[in-house]
Every structure is written in C-alpha cells, then in structure tokens.
Amino acid sequence: MTVNQISVFLENRPGTLTNMTALLAENGIDMRALSLAETNDFGIVRIIVDDVYKAATVLKDGGFVHKLTPVLAVLIPDEPGGLHRVLEVLTGAGVNVEYMYAFLGGGDVDHAYMIFRVQDTKAAGAALAAKGIKLVSQDNISGI
Asked: Which of 56, 66, 72, 139 is the most core-located residue (most Cβ within 10 A)?
C-alpha cells in the first residue's frame, strides 16, 4: 500500500517556492506533508497532497518540473522507541531507507506519520503489515 509523493524541482532563488505553494493553494490542493532539500542551484520539494492527479496537472500546466514517486506513509506511535521499532522491521526485511520525513496528522495526539522512500515498497509494506504496523493508503491521505 503506497502513497504517491510529488517531487518538484525548483530553482534555489527567492519566490520560487512561494510560486509553487500559491499555485497549489489557488487550486484548492491541500498539502498533507512537505520536505525540502536544497543545493546551491536548485531544491527538491517532496509533497504529499490530498489530490495527486489534480496537483500533478496543475504543476505541469504551471511549468513546474516534477515526478511521482511511490512511498510508504507509516503510522508511528508517539512513544519512546516508536520509530526504532519500525526501522528494526525494515532492517530485518533487508529494506534500505533512502530518505524519510515526518508529519503530524490532524487531531491525532497518540501518533505521527512518517514517509519512507524505499527501493522495494511491496517488501517493506508486507514486512510492516506482518508486524501489525499500520500504513496509510492514498485514498485515506486526505483524512489525516
């Protein structure tokens, strides 16, 4: 069970990120999670949105270079060792984590969510599900 992440490539200059967020806002697209990584010349904004198709279309029409990437959205208990237990399951399944970032869900106070980019999402998802670790589907992302 994967979620589609949109990676948007932006020039590293004032206003570029604002232009992207304005476009999404003007089109009623809700960002559920965001990560920004940068170099001297460009940045990569990774976003999870409530409507992937609409967001991808709006970004394309707005001239933003982007791509879709399947990622896992994993429920992490808000307790000591919560993330560690998830990472142990992935390590035990031989799954390497390429990158990850966290976000909080709406009114939830007993857990957060972590986005995981892994090479084999099926193997990672199966290993987590086998240990009772909950994943969020694309259909449920807007309810978070």
From this structure: 72
Summarised one tens digit per residue, pLDDT across range 49-76 is 999 999 999 999 999 999 999 999 999 8
Map tokens 């978070």 to a residue: 144
The CA distance from 85 to 11, in Å, is: 37
Check: CB of residue 59 under 8 Å from CB of residue 8: yes
Query: What is the helix (H) or strand (E) element at residue 63, kind and residue range?
Result: none
Q: How many CA atoms lie within 13 A of 8 on its CB side?
A: 30
Contact 3, 139 (CB under 8 A): no
- DSSP for residue 129: H
> The pTM is what?
0.88
In this structure, the number of other CB atoms found within 10 A of the CB of residue 18 comes to 9
State both tokens at 65: 């270079």
Residues 6+ apart with CB under 8 A from 18: none
